[in-house]
Amino acid sequence: MEPNPSGNPESKADYGASNIQVLEGLEAVRKRPAMYIGDVGIRGLHHLVYEVVDNSIDEALAGHCDRIEVTINKDGSITVRDNGRGIPVDEHKEGVSALEVVMTTLHAGGKFDKDTYKVSGGLHGVGVSCVNALSSRLEARVQRNGKLWEQDYELGKPTAPIREVRAMTADEESGTEVQFWPDAGIFQTTEYRFDTLAERLRELAYLNREVYIRIADLREDDEIIEEEYHFEGGISEFVTYLDEARTPISEEVIYVGDEDADVPVELAMRYNTGYTENVLSFVNNINTHEGGTHVSGFRRALTRTLKGYAESNNLLKNAKVDLSGDDFREGLTAVLSVKVQEPQFEGQTKTKLGNSEVQGAVESLVGERLKIWLEDHPKEGKRIVDKVLLAAQARDAARKARELVQRKNAFSTGGLPGKLADCASRNAEECELYLVEGDSAGGSAKQARDRHFQAILPLRGKILNVEKARLDKVLANEEIKNIVTALGTGLTVGSEELDLEKLRYHKVVVMTDADVDGAHIRTLLLTFLYRQLRPLLERGYVYVAQPPLYKAKKGKQERYAWDDAELQEAIVELKGESAARVTVQRYKGLGEMNPEQLWETTMDPKRRMMQRVTIDDAAAADRIFSTLMGDAVEPRRKFIERNAKYATIDV
Asked: Are 608 and 601 in contact (CB under 8 A)?
């Protein structure tokens, strides 16, 4: 392990039981886990790991930790180890050790004491006590003050008082190790995904450039899967990573930073030849999906500084349209990270920063430093301004095209696409819109559906790849116009937000054939939804239909199967003791199923399987879409090679 960077024994001695403050108890966590970790599905499961890692990151932010190790153990448990100061183990005023207080009391920890942590991650401070409450078993080991201490817990309760195990050896560092087994009685699944954890840990390593973070997966018998992240370039390297599949206007990443200010700010940004804005913002390592005052300050500084630079250098003399703030952000990839002592969060998901003082701090620093960079890089500055002018011209054309897809009366069929077979219900919460590949499958779906709440919109061929098209071309595409008009929300165009209150269907279901062309159409549709209708994905309104791949039949008996394993089970079940032949049909297209079969397997709410499309990690989602649908070939080739083992090819 790397040595502790602080090298200050006094700072460790000052961190004791008196620094741990208790705010309230833990009783409700097991009864209502979703209130504390979001849900009890795959997202909530992974959130347990993030809560423990956040404690270690807090130690790194305070300058007392530079290595964090996360291990997925063979039995499915998780171990998180750091080389920080170690959670205090001396007796707390509550009458038990400080470690036990931290592990068993909600809102207990050093992050509430600003002498211990000036800034800290985690939205509500539920921390490791939540992890303990939602684990069938947890083991905590602390190396501190020259000794190793241990305490075990079951269902959030200690099985015995804290115990001193032994003295530390001369080469051992202080630190904390937490191993936990998520409770299978609470979570829908307890199987961790390596890639999901790796994406978040990689992100944390970019945001905290002084930290080494390692993740290892020990579940495979024949190999250990492991990765280590350490990025001395910090968020500048993050921008390069995000832009791997895009063509930059300038190779240099613009970096602005002042980590010694009252509000420490870091910004890295670069323009590319694409048409989308990709700004990731963080407050104390929390991804602020909904933006907030720090993002507002950045945008104001960007617009004011670039416009002032263009005017002072006479670069707008040929401009035929007025410039707006949106034009300055087309093709921009940026990572903005701020540290705030008392962050105030608001918004739909409590990830929108509300601190008013942060806006001025970001605006002032970015404006000052960006102006200097532009003066030192006149060629790159001119390229950026030219890009802004092209964006303004495209926006003017898009304004005219957008008028063609403006939604008329929300429930008037006069303004709806002619190919749309609408449903009878006007209750958006129960209504479903199926985006179906081709007229043939669309015809079957129209016959199969429940007309009361299921609407069908057949799509002709492959829609436009919006990753490679300007907004005016996107809005002029006939199939896209039909989708937007049917949904009724309008589009997100720059600062003009779509209106979710006008959404006519709370389930938007992508239903395509189970072949290569169907997969391509599905990807094109998801790219469009992500880039232009992203709030639908964030609210969980988008689904992918899961039609069966096989039908096994013996006489009049039939079984459907969604993968090869289910097919083998179906064949064994149908054969039974007889030697009768079981025939297998492989469905490659929805049109191969009659309306009754399509309803029974894919559209009946009582029996169907649908996959909800969510955005767990905005950075990972953006990178995947730009890799698969962008211009750069090499990143796409690498992605396919890396994931080819998961593909099924029909010959």
From this structure: yes
Active-site residue 115, yes or no? Answer: no
What's the domain range around 390? Answer: 235-402
- 437 is known as an active-site residue: yes
Structure token pair of residue 333: 């990839």
Residue 591's CB is within 10 A of a number of other CB atoms, namely 18
Q: Catalytic residue among 199, 330, 380, 513, which?
A: 513
Final residue before a domain boundary, out of 402, 423, 442: 402
513 given a catalytic annotation: yes
For residue 115, how many other CB atoms are within 10 A of its CB? Answer: 10
Six-digit token string for 389: 């002018």
Catalytic one among 51, 203, 326, 437? Answer: 437
395 and 520 fall within a common domain: no
Q: Do the beta carbons of residue 239 and residue 622 sit within 8 Å?
A: no
Q: Using CB atoms within 10 A of its CB, is residue 483 exposed (0-12), middle (13-18) or buried (19+)? A: buried
What is the rounded distance in angstroms from the CA atom of residue 644 to the CA atom of residue 628? 14
Are the beta carbons of 181 and 77 closer than 8 angstroms? Answer: yes
**Strand stretches in 36-82, DSSP E:** 67-72, 78-82
Q: What residues does 22 pair with on adjacent strands?
A: 108
Look at residue 568 and tell me if it is in a domain: no
pLDDT, tens digit, 9 for 90 and up, residues 8-29: 444 555 667 766 655 445 677 8
Alpha helices in 255-355 (DSSP H): 293-312
Q: What does the alpha-carbon distance between residue 293 and residue 363 come to, in Å, rounded to a whole number?
A: 10
Nearest-5° Cα angle at 464, 460 to 468: 170
CA-angle at 237, arms to 231 and 238, nearest 5°:
100
Calpha distance 580→410 (Å, rounded): 56
**Marked catalytic residue, from 115, 496, 499, 515:** 515
User: What total of structural domains would you count in the chain?
Assistant: 3
Q: Are residues 515 and 531 in the same domain?
A: yes
Which of 152, 173, 517, 558 does the annotation list as catalytic? 517
Enter the pTM of the model.
0.74
Q: What are the tens digits of pLDDT across the range 369-386?
A: 999 999 999 999 999 999
Residues 184 and 64 in one domain: yes
The kind and range of the H/E element at 489 are none
pLDDT at 453 over 90: yes
User: 163-167 and 175-182 as β-strands: parallel, antiparallel, unpaired?
Assistant: unpaired
CB 59 within 8 A of CB 84: yes
**428 or 413: which carries more pLDDT confidence?**
428
Residue 517 designated active-site: yes
DSSP assigned state of 187: S
